[in-house]
Amino acid sequence: MINITVEEHNGERRNLEVPVDMGLNLMEVLKAYEYDIQATCGGMALCATCHIEVLEGTDKLPEPNDNELDTLDTLPDADMNSRLSCQLRPDDTMDGLVIRIKALQES
Question: Which intervals hold domain 2Fe-2S ferredoxin-type (predicted)?
Fold first, then answer.
């Protein structure tokens, strides 16, 4: 288990206990914690409805693949800390990650 913190839109932070042995991606974890992520494309890095901003721990993440970068390029508010949560598989190196779910702000 690792801990990932989600900063809510009001600034409050919620700590999530995330299993690293179930093969889930971060989008699936967020949905399991009842965040309203549409995941329209089913985790294929095509729709950006799981767009997150990494507030702390960017250095703990693997480099984004070309599909993820292409999709992020279509978003007007994407920046260097933007990622698609469907493309991130939590592992021990991500312990302490702090994120904000951008897709929910946009709706």
Answer: 2-105
35 Cβ contact partners less than 8 Å away, ≥ 6 residues apart: 6, 101, 104
pTM of the shown model: 0.93
pLDDT top residue among 85 and 103:
85
Percentage of residues in the chain with pLDDT exceeding 90?
93
3-state secondary structure of 72: helix
Question: What distance in Å separates the CA atoms of residue 80 and residue 82, rounded to the nearest whole number?
Answer: 6
CB 55 within 8 A of CB 98: yes
CA angle 79, 84, 89 (to 5 degrees): 130
Q: Supply the DSSP symbol for 92.
A: G
> Which amino acid, one-letter code, is at 2?
I
- The least confident of 27-31, 96-100, 101-105 is 101-105
Provide the CA 98 distance to its chain's centre, in angstroms. 10
